[in-house]
Design goal:
Elements lengths: L6 H16 L11 E3 L10 E2 H18 L4 H14 L8 E2 L5 E2 L5 H13 L7 H9 L17 E2 H18 L2 H18 L9 E2 L14 H13 L1 H6 L2 H9 L19 E2 H16 L10 H11 L10 E2 L9 E3 L3 H11 L10 H5 L27
Antiparallel strand pairs: 1-9, 2-3, 3-4, 5-6, 7-8
The structure holds 6-O-phosphono-beta-D-mannopyranose.
The site of 6-O-phosphono-beta-D-mannopyranose has 6 residues, from loops.
Length: 386
């Protein structure tokens, strides 16, 4: 089945202009936390630190892969994120005057600082600063989730640290980042991944799974299938087919991944669907024959019609019955969408390229501006650009 939805045209001509126009603080204090359903930027809610870094990643990636002029914007966002951490600790968030709020120094947020820095052709944040920031969270095995060593410890933060450290190693060739990735990989293979292919989320200080609140997020299983496919050591050591089967066992009747497995009333955010798309692309690249409802073409159509808006925004969450539950579009979801676009176009991470060579090799794709949704779809509840 040919894909009717033009993902590239949507990203270039709808999403990037929409988020450039509305997703940034007009006073220069980073990215907004979300855009409201009426299309207006929400200027007052606190902006989580990860949001500036994730949007920096997206704009740097667009500059690199699509040849857009977004690199200065990415650099501005990441430099702002860095400034909010002038104390040496990454705040939980910043306010609409750019002031840091909290100093938890979360591993999860730091992972996105590292990832965005690696995406830029030259570091915006000194790599040594990022290494020191990580050293503040060092644990006997892995890293603490924040500087207060709050429990439970999470696989999620280490999954994103694995992604970021791998990117930092590709960008710099620095073996220190390879060591960070090695440790996260080992944790995945020996602690997080279960024999039945599920991935547990929560652990105590000694990496024993906690019982209370323990859960399985199939979106994370799907994410590991893609990350594992990109990583020869995981691909050799883990059974990606079993992980893919475990994640897709949770699929609802309409073909969407719920946020949580084993809960018939679980809602479904946008991001598990983009991770399912990446996992399906990985499985196909590995020569697996996918059932019709799990082909990448089928998944992208479902994403386009259930979540993406013609204006370049998104409906971020629906409940188990498909009803819209998100009142706004979080900026943080663009990172997932852009990564899915990368996988869809098989844009591979490029190892061994120097920063200068990367900067001079943007993929200047010519993408015509036409309706990315073919055939025309029902009007979106999101207001058009004014
Ligand atoms: O909830 P936000 O910040 O949009 O993040 C969206 C999701 O990203 C994924 O990669 C995971 O880390 C999830 O646990 C997280 O919920």
């Amino acid at each position: 089945m040919p894909a009717a939805f033009d993902f590239s045209a949507w990203i270039r001509h709808r999403a990037l202009p929409f988020w450039r126009a509305r997703g940034l603080c007009p006073n220069g204090f980073g990215a907004v936390e979300h855009i409201r359903a009426d299309g207006s930027a929400a200027l007052y809610p606190l902006r989580r630190s990860r949001v500036h870094a994730r949007q920096a990643f997206v704009f740097a990636a667009a500059a690199r892969d699509m040849g857009t002029d977004d690199l200065p914007l990415a650099q501005h966002l990441l430099a702002f994120a860095h400034r909010t951490a002038a104390s040496g600790f990454i705040p939980i968030a910043s306010d609409n005057h750019g002031r840091p709020v909290g100093d938890a120094h979360r591993l999860y947020d730091l992972a996105f600082y590292i990832l965005a820095n690696a995406e830029c052709p030259a570091p915006v944040i000194p790599w040594d600063w990022l290494k020191q920031a990580l050293a503040k969270l060092r644990a006997p095995l892995g890293w603490w989730d924040d500087r207060l060593r709050c429990a439970p410890r999470t696989q999620n933060a280490h999954m994103h640290l694995f992604e970021a450290a791998s990117a930092a190693h590709r960008a710099t060739g620095d073996p220190d980042w390879a060591e960070v990735a090695d440790e996260c990989r080992a944790l995945f293979l020996t602690v997080f991944l279960q024999p039945d292919g599920t991935v547990l989320e929560l652990f105590d200080a000694h990496w024993r799974p906690v019982k209370q609140g323990q859960r399985v997020e199939p979106g994370h299983g799907a994410e590991w299938v893609y990350l594992g496919h990109q990583d020869p050591q995981i691909a050799a050591a883990a059974d990606l087919d079993t992980i893919f089967s475990a994640a897709t066992r949770a699929l609802g009747h309409a073909g969407f991944l719920p946020d949580q497995a084993d809960d018939p009333l679980a809602g479904r955010r946008l991001w598990p669907q983009t991770e399912l798309l990446r996992a399906a692309l990985a499985q196909r690249a590995r020569g697996r024959v996918l059932p019709p409802h799990l082909t990448p073409e089928a998944i992208i159509q479902r994403i386009a019609h259930s979540y993406l808006t013609p204006q370049g925004g998104w409906i971020d969450a629906r409940d188990h019955a498909g009803r819209i539950t998100a009142a706004h579009m979080p900026s943080s979801s663009f990172y997932h969408i852009f990564n899915a676009w990368r996988a869809w176009h098989d844009v591979q991470p490029r190892a061994g390229l120097t920063a200068g060579a990367r900067a001079s090799q943007p993929r200047r794709q010519q993408i015509p501006d036409h309706n990315p949704f073919v055939p025309p779809r029902a009007p979106s509840p999101i207001a058009p650009l004014r």
